[in-house]
Design a protein that fits this description.
The complex is a heterodimer of chains A (209) and B (275). Helix content of chain A is 67%, strand content 0%. Chain A is an all-alpha fold and 209 residues long. With 275 residues, chain B is an alpha+beta fold. In chain B, strand 2 and strand 3 form a beta hairpin. Chain B folds into 3 domains: 43 residues, no CATH class; 95 residues, no CATH class; 107 residues, Immunoglobulin-like (Sandwich), CATH 2.60.40. The chains are: A mainly alpha (209), B alpha+beta (275). At the A-B interface, helix 3, helix 4, helix 6, helix 7 and helix 8 of A face helix 1, helix 3, helix 4, helix 6 and helix 8 of B.
Chain lengths: 209, 275
């Protein structure tokens, strides 16, 4: 087993778990919008940190997991990202997207781990030379894009999600979609446009870091 | 006249422009730029695969964060989570991840039962990453009954029912350093378009490890697991959305029983499909 954990020191210290709640127990208002979470986060509301973890830790964790291919490292990265974000919240502009900001931090932490690994690997393991995928900065960015997209697609309501699914993956034209879903042409068209713009906004935030 | 915004979105998806729009696009920088941006969104959107499933971290990660930041010292962080603390992480996986999708009937983040061993409960959260078939948002749409017929079908592994498949690609597999093994890989395509990777190896089998079959892209930066190879012969459905001219490297790895779904880094054989 190419044990990444043996090669790369854990990014953050694991603490004893005995006394910790396993889930965020501070409760945020359930109806918080993403923007409201971001604003509360920026002013140091612990409930907002817990809520941010609920909403975006899957994105952070999956990005780390996909690029580092190690559960242990992905968990450590997730921990470090939220710890760094909380401690560095003074540097967060609450008018921006918290998800995008967290993604940017994740990319940085992941790239750090990859660099450390490749340093440590040079003499320790020849496995990478066999061509087993080792993510590069560009690959991390590309995975971040895809996951961000998957996350945003999942957040689309209906019928937008279905419309986009048919347009993206079944290559149906808007009039075919209109026919299949029995929706007016104009409705389908405007859903497509608005969904694409929404996805573009989300992507731009991720790219801007 | 600039191209209508709705029309630009449709063009980005690949629909045919009207003659007037096509003419306008030849000269208008603004519309061309807008179209390029939307086309890029479509490109990324279409690149999303069933691998791009968000996986919540293990249940104790929040506790570690909370500890490290000494959260809740003045508030609600105390013992109120006792009910959750006792929950096994498998059951709690959806809890952290599906907040915004809880109304979906398919519970997108519910982990599939791992087919391999998962000795550590924490690792269970990882397994669905590769075991899931459809991206959650597609699965949710399908479950809602809105997507009819073949919708979303690009991501569903096809059924291997048709007779007389044609061979569309093949590769001879060569051992990596340290291995004594040879093998052949063939991709068959049936009438309904289902592609199947057929493997035939001549390689020793160990007791303390199993073999997993992968397709890796030509840049060797991305990989897709096709499943576990038991013995020396096996058939694996190739996901219908997977571009074999890109994912052309067939890889057979040795995997320890450690519950980690990632590639072990220990490849036995590799070969390049002649796609």
């Amino acid at each position: 087993m190419m044990s990444a954990t043996a090669l790369a020191p854990a990014p953050t210290t694991r603490r004893p778990r005995l006394t910790s709640p396993r889930h965020p127990t501070t409760s945020a208002p359930p109806a918080w919008s993403d923007d409201e979470v971001a604003r509360a986060f920026a002013v140091g509301d612990e409930a907002a940190l817990a809520e941010a973890f609920r909403r975006w830790s899957p994105l952070v964790h999956t990005l780390a997991l996909r690029t580092l291919r190690s559960t242990h490292d992905a968990e450590d990265v997730t921990q470090q990202v939220f710890v760094n974000a909380w401690r560095g919240r003074a540097g967060f502009d609450a008018d921006r997207s918290l998800a995008g900001w967290l993604t940017g931090i994740t990319r940085n932490v992941v790239v750090d781990v990859l660099r450390r690994r490749s340093r440590d690997q040079r003499d320790a393991v020849a496995v990478a030379a066999d061509g087993v995928p080792v993510a590069t900065d560009a690959e991390v960015a590309s995975v971040a894009e895809r996951l961000t997209m998957a996350d945003e697609l999942a957040r689309l309501g209906e019928p937008q999600r279905t419309i986009l699914s048919l347009a993206f993956y079944d290559d149906l034209t808007h009039d075919q979609i209109s026919e299949r879903l029995d929706l007016p042409l104009g409705t389908v068209k405007s859903h497509i446009r608005r969904s694409l713009l929404r996805l573009r906004d989300r992507l731009e935030v991720t790219r801007a870091r | 006249m600039h191209v209508d915004d709705d029309a630009l979105a449709l063009l980005a998806l690949g629909e045919t422009p009207s003659a007037a729009d096509a003419e306008h696009l030849r000269t208008c920088e603004r519309c061309t730029r807008e179209l390029a941006a939307l086309t890029d969104v479509v490109r990324v959107g279409r690149s999303v695969t069933d691998d791009d499933v968000l996986v919540a971290p293990a249940a104790d990660v929040w506790g570690r964060i909370s500890d490290e930041l000494a959260l809740g010292t003045g508030g609600a962080g105390g013992g109120s989570g006792t009910g959750l603390q006792a929950a096994p992480s498998l059951a709690s996986v959806p809890d952290a991840g599906s907040e915004n999708r809880t109304s979906e009937p398919s519970t997108p983040d519910a982990p599939a039962t791992p087919s391999g061993t998962a000795p550590d409960g924490d690792l269970a959260a990882v397994v669905p990453l590769r075991r899931r078939r459809a991206a959650p948002w597609i699965a949710a749409a399908a479950a809602a009954g809105v997507v009819a017929g073949g919708a979303g079908g690009a991501w569903w592994a096809g059924q291997d029912t048709s007779p007389a498949p044609a061979v569309v690609a093949q590769a001879s597999l060569d051992p990596l350093p340290g291995w004594q093994a040879t093998g052949e890989a063939v991709v068959e395509e049936s009438d309904d378009g289902t592609r199947t990777l057929v493997l035939d190896l001549d390689a020793p089998t160990g007791d303390d490890a199993f073999r997993e079959v992968w397709l890796i892209d030509r840049d060797v930066t991305r990989l897709v697991s096709l499943g576990v190879l038991d013995g020396t012969e096996g058939r694996f459905t190739v996901p219908s959305g997977l571009d074999l001219s890109d994912f052309a490297v067939v890889d057979v790895s040795e995997e320890p029983y450690d519950g980690d779904p990632a590639h072990s880094g220990d490849s036995i054989l590799r070969g390049l499909l002649d796609t």
